[in-house]
Design goal:
- It is elongated and about 115 Å long.
- Strands 7-6-5-8-9-10 form a six-stranded parallel β-sheet, covered by helices on one side. A four-stranded antiparallel β-sheet has the order 2-3-1-4.
- With 421 residues, the chain is an alpha/beta fold.
- Helices cover 56% and strands 13% of the residues.
Length: 421
């Protein structure tokens, strides 16, 4: 068996492919079960965010192509198109990749913290579905430990840099004074929470939170002194939207060209700044064709994000060293575990041989044989039994010129090289 990390991300695939391969949160448990059953995997976990979809598995080598085919079939995507923008990481490289993802080193925003929570959720979903067992579960737990070490021992997460922060920074470049701007935020998840907090800190005039579940919108609105509305009220609220930022898990667009066009007329074509952070997209791409609308997707935030990343580069180098060490430690642990079965069998076999010799010794004592003689026979018998098979194999290896086995035996039994010369 081998560990595999297979997927696509913002570096390898454009947003139109990423959104087609994204898993809706409510379908994740079902997808995990189907991946195991249909791709014949022993264990799997799926991480799906706006910037990546990755499958972490424990499988046979030939199954990677089968798994990619399953992913294409599940989302009804051309397999060749998916193959061209996918990547694979095996064993130690897979462990190192997962740790880099968890620490935010593979994120669009270097060091962003949200991805760790998303990875923990992927772990929980697979664990609850009974699709996570010893080896992959051990990798997740070790990954979380290394990610925590990166956070505590480096400054990778000290600066407020995230997709949410980048979106608000871009708004500040477009609007000279956010104190005169009104914002409408669609969604109430972690990203929108960060957007709302950044906008409040930037002094935006008002914040409206629109969400499918009004309760969550009310809770966030109360935190940022805003107001909450339901999705059905969005078209009426657009007239007040100088800034609109959306991030939901909806599989279909929430905002269409017609409703935005109607709002622009009522706004007398006052400009609207929009950022669609969601994958799949919440805002129809055609909205960007309208005059007075400045529509950006997560891919358009790259320039803002790159500027903010520079402050984290030194910390990232320290983090990479911790991750490389962590991945090496994990693989060492796995190799040590590989020896457990062999050692268990060896101990069992020698215990059986020892019990046979002990039974023979007890019979001799029962027959009145001198204890000293019996003990000598016991020691001699144990030595012969324990070394018989290794002696046969070593003599055969020597006859075949297999010096490597001779050297390995010397290392295993801690033999003095000089005494063998």
């Amino acid at each position: 068996m081998a560990l595999l990390a297979l997927g696509i991300n913002h570096k390898t695939a454009p947003v139109d492919i990423r959104e087609r391969v994204a898993f809706a949160p409510e379908h994740l448990a079902e997808a995990v079960a189907k991946a195991c059953d249909e791709a014949k995997l022993s264990e799997v976990a799926i991480l799906s965010t706006c910037n990546r979809t990755e499958l972490y598995c424990n499988l046979e080598g030939e199954q990677s192509a089968q798994l990619l085919q399953w992913l294409a079939d599940y989302h009804q995507v051309d397999p060749q198109q998916l193959k061209e923008c996918s990547y694979e990481h095996w064993d130690q490289s897979a462990a190192q990749h997962m740790m880099r993802v968890a620490a935010g080193l593979d994120s669009l925003v270097l060091g962003e913290p949200q991805i760790l929570g998303q990875l923990k959720n992927a772990f929980s979903v697979s664990q609850d579905a009974g699709r996570l067992h010893a080896e992959l579960g051990r990798l997740f737990r070790h990954t979380f430990s290394v990610a925590k070490q990166v956070r505590t021992e480096t400054s990778i997460g000290q600066n407020p840099v995230s997709v949410a922060y980048a979106a608000v920074s871009l708004a500040q470049h477009i609007f000279a004074d956010l104190g005169e701007s009104r914002a409408v935020l669609i969604g109430a998840g972690e990203t929108i929470e960060l957007v709302a907090r950044h906008l409040k800190q930037a002094g935006v005039r008002s914040i409206t939170i629109a969400n499918r579940t009004l309760g969550r919108a009310l809770a966030l609105a109360q935190e940022v002194d805003g107001k909450a509305i339901e999705f059905s009220q969005i078209p009426d609220e657009l007239i007040n939207a100088d800034i609109l930022i959306s991030s939901t898990a909806s599989q279909l667009p929430i905002l269409g060209k017609g409703s935005v066009e109607a709002a622009l007329k009522k706004r007398r074509h006052a400009p609207m700044f929009m950022v669609d952070i969601a994958v799949p997209r919440d805002i129809e791409p055609q909205v960007g064709d309208l005059e007075d609308v400045y529509l950006y997707t997560v891919d358009d935030l790259t320039e803002v994000i790159e500027e903010n990343q520079r402050s984290r580069q030194d910390a990232a180098q320290e983090a990479e060293q911790l991750i490389e060490k962590g991945a090496g430690q994990f693989m060492r642990q796995l190799r040590e575990l590989d020896a457990v079965d062999t050692l268990t069998q060896l101990r069992s076999k020698h215990t059986q041989l020892a019990e046979e010799e002990l039974a023979r010794a007890l019979r001799l004592l029962g027959q009145g044989k001198p204890a000293e003689e019996v003990m000598k026979r016991l020691a001699h018998g144990l030595t012969n039994k324990f070394l018989h098979q290794p002696s046969v194999q070593l003599r055969q290896a020597s006859a075949e010129g297999r010096d490597d086995l001779q050297a390995l035996a010397a290392e295993l039994f801690n033999l003095d090289a000089q005494s063998r010369d």
